[in-house]
Amino acid sequence: MSVVNLQAAPDDSSSLLRLARDGNAAAFEALVRQHQASVFSIGYRMLGRRDAAEDLAQDVFLQLYRRLDSIETLQHLGFWLRRVAANLAIDWLRRPAPSATQALDTEAELAAPEVECDPLMTRALARLLGELAPAARAVMVLRYQEDLEVAEIATALDMPVNTVKSHIKRSLTALRGKMIGAQLVSSEELP
Amino acid sequence: MSQDIENELRRAMRAIDPPADFTARVMRNLPPRATVTAIAAARPAARPSLWTRLSAPVALAASLLVAIVLGQHMATQQAERQQLAGLEASRKLMQALRVTSQKLDLAYEAVQRPPPVAPPAEENRS
């Protein structure tokens, strides 16, 4: 297996894809590093457990390795990874497994980038998100974590655009209601 | 407030890095490339399309519907045939009764008619 100098051209991602398709392990490893946070986070937000998220991400990248020949561009790669991760997570959640879901805030050791925000609100929102139905949760994760457009989410999850919009609207309403119930916000703050 | 919640969601859902050895474990678990190519060539997409997933139940439902409609049609036709046969049998029975009635009338008339008077042949001899 040939070795490619990835440091020499860190931004040349198209050639990474080409090299990975040609069987270059270092190039594939670089692609994994580029996308692993996104895939792992989708798994974590969907499944609520670090170990399950790792398993899911491993599975997604294994599927990518098997289907590299069908990936045409880097944009396609990113979309493909999100799509497979979200759908796989929905499948796992629908499987009758006793440990399918767990509250997100039990995994407090997870390292996240430091940004200015209310940690209490952040944790509560993450926990409340975990209470949504699998499909609705996937929509919210793709919308607010991955910043996908409604049409892209519809394509990724194989559902009508109006269903995606409906999921977002209903989930936001539910989250707002739960936040009021948990006294994270007061009803006076609502419009 | 809606915008606030959306912003809070975006903040709460920042990407999280997997464990440090994640990439190495992915690379360790990869199968040989030749095996991968063979598997990829033999296997279709990971998640079948909506139509592919629904085609079997739709086909089954359509078959059931056709079977029900055909069954109803055949049952109706059989009922019509039985009704026609019944009418034909009834018509034949009425015909037979009419013929029998006519024969009985003739027989009755024959019985009721007085017998013809025989000529007194014995008296002439003596």
Compact overview of the structure:
With 191 residues, chain A is mainly alpha-helical.
List keywords for this structure.
heterodimer; A: mainly alpha; Rna Polymerase Sigma Factor, Chain: A; Arc Repressor Mutant, subunit A; 2 domains; 8 helices; elongated; disordered N terminus; B: mainly alpha; 5 helices
- The overall average pLDDT of chain A, rounded, is 80
Q: End-to-end distance of chain A, in Å?
A: 61 Å
- Strand coverage percent of chain B: under 5%
Number of helices of chain A: 8
Any idea of the CATH class of the largest domain in chain A? Mainly Alpha
Helix % of chain A is 55-70%
| Tally of DSSP helical segments of chain B | 5
Oligomer: heterodimer
Proportion of residues in extended strands of chain A: under 5%
CATH superfamily of the largest domain in chain A, by name, is: RNA polymerase sigma factor, region 2, helix turn helix motif
Radius of gyration of chain B: 48 Å
Secondary structure layout:
The complex is a heterodimer of chains A (191) and B (126).
Chain A: H1 13-21, H2 25-47, H3 50-66, H4 74-94, H5 119-129, H6 134-145, H7 150-157, H8 161-181
Helix pairs in contact in A: 1-2, 2-3, 2-4, 2-6, 3-4, 4-6, 4-7, 5-8, 6-7, 6-8, 7-8
Chain B: H1 2-12, H2 22-29, H3 33-42, H4 50-112, H5 121-125
